Amino acid sequence: MIKRFFSPKVLSGILVLAIALTAAQWILSRQVVAVQNETYKSLKIFADVLGIVQKDYAEEKESKELIYSALKGMIKKLDPHSSFLTPDDYKEMQIDTKGVFGGIGIEISMRDGVLTVVSPIEDTPADRAGIEAGDKIVKIEDKSTKDMSLTDAVKLMRGKKGTELNIHIMRESFNKPKLFTLTRARIKIKSVKFEKLDDGFGYVRLAQFQENSSKEIRKALKKITPEGGLKGLVLDLRNNPGGLLTEAVGVSDIFLDSGMIVYTKGRDDVAKMEFRADAEGTEPDYPVIVLVNGGSASASEIVAGALQDHKRAVILGTQSFGKGSVQTIIPLTDGSAVRLTTSKYYTPSGRSIQAKGIEPDIIVEAAGPQMHVKEKDLEGHLEAEKGSDKEADKKKKKIKIKESAKKNGNGSADEKAEDIQRTRAIDYLKSWHIFKGMLSDAS
Fold first, then answer.
1. pLDDT digit string (tens) for 105-157?
2. pTM recorded for the entire structure
3. What pLDDT sits at residue 401?
């Protein structure tokens, strides 16, 4: 048996290390206790204030109403996409993901304390009335929207089919707020529209990522695919505000047979998730052009980023919204819930889109003025990450081709009225053999 002996110097070193580790553990435990004590002190202050209000306020208030208001204020301070949901709010949110509700049909966000239209939903009362992205809603009925929460605004605007809603809109071209009287309708968001184009090409528009959107796109592709197969596809994600992450993965998987689609990273390992493509059910390798603009957000950016990184599609349009964060819904025991930003998502090449957006391969401005609120414009947004873009992303910037309606046509009224971005996408598909060479030479 071999016996090991340690010199006095080694023994003293071990003793010092043991003492240091013990001291560190003691200090850490004291710090944890100190943090806990500070939290308990703050909670006691909250309880004291709640008691004072209940006892001495001029009018009687329900405890739950006061506590819910405090929770809303706390979560609101985090970022524009986190929120506390009362039981009613939580039910409304679940209705949203189903895609059926009564209202006027707009996506909204908060900017400088004022409700701002992100985009009107196609073929809804708001869209037909001419409400535009960037419009500021200053009043709903007789209530000012300054510092109004998004959930409260949604409650006011939703209602029974056939009832009227008055909203006051301020636009840059208006001298004063303009009254819009809208008739609420049953908003059934038809998330997928499609069109069979000439010469074997196809067009699919996705308005929102809701339940079964990926299945609906697969059905649409079957309907527009001729006997000889598709020669090319335009996938339109413009003014698509996003939706379910699982559906963004599902749509991406239609066009990718392997590799990463998107991954998320948060404060700890629990928030780390990877989503990969499966070869089963992948569409043939025909050319794809994805249309995006400033109203393309979140799930739209996941799809565009994945297809761009894998060089499976060319992205055409203008820079997207820039929402690169993931929200988790945490139900609570009383039927309420917390909608909390728990992580950020990254494209396969490691790009963070937060407050940056997807930069198109081909920049084509839409005809007419375009006003889109971006993530970076929202109060309290998470800052863009510095240095997260890889070298591959830098190379992409070298192949940008900028176009506009004026530059690429005769500037006639007819051309300005048409959808120049869609037209350009179809033109590029029809001359793909030439266009593909241009991209290869540029890269």
1. 888 887 777 889 988 887 889 999 999 988 999 999 999 988 788 878 988 99
2. 0.72
3. 56
Q: Which CATH architecture has domain 192-442?
A: Alpha-Beta Complex (3.90)
309 in catalytic set: yes
Kindly list the domain boundaries of the chain, sorted by start residue.
Answer: 100-188, 192-442
| Alpha helix ranges (H) inside 84-142 | 87-98, 125-128
Count of Cβ atoms closer than 10 Å to residue 128 Cβ: 15
Q: How many CB atoms lie within 10 A of CB 114?
A: 16
Element (H, E) at 289: strand 288-292
The confidence score (pLDDT) of residue 397 equals 46
Q: Which of 72, 76, 139, 323 is catalytic?
A: 323
**Given strand 201-206, what is the order of strands in its sheet?**
192-196, 201-206, 232-236, 288-292, 314-317, 362-364, 401-403
With a cut of 70, list the residues of the chain below it in pLDDT.
1-36, 95-100, 269-271, 368-374, 376-377, 379-380, 387-417, 437-443
Residue 41 annotated to the active site: no
Is there a catalytic annotation at residue 390? no
Q: How far apart are CA 3 and CA 11, in angstroms?
A: 16
The span from the first CA to the last CA of the chain, in angstroms, equals 68
What pLDDT sits at residue 267?
A: 84
Enumerate residues 6+ apart whose C-beta is below 8 A from 166.
139, 140, 141, 179, 180, 181, 182
Q: Which one is catalytic: 309, 343, 356, 430?
A: 309
Active site residue: 191, 298, 320, 349, which one? 298
Amino acid at position 400, single letter = K
DSSP 209: B
Q: What CATH number should be reported for the domain whose range is 100-188? A: 2.30.42.10
- Strand partners of residue 402: 363
In this prediction, residue 11 carries a pLDDT of 45
CB distance 336 to 283 below 8 Å: no
The dihedrals phi and psi of 152, each to the nearest 5 degrees, come to -65, -40
3-state secondary structure of 262: strand
* Whether 224 contacts 204, CB under 8 Å: yes
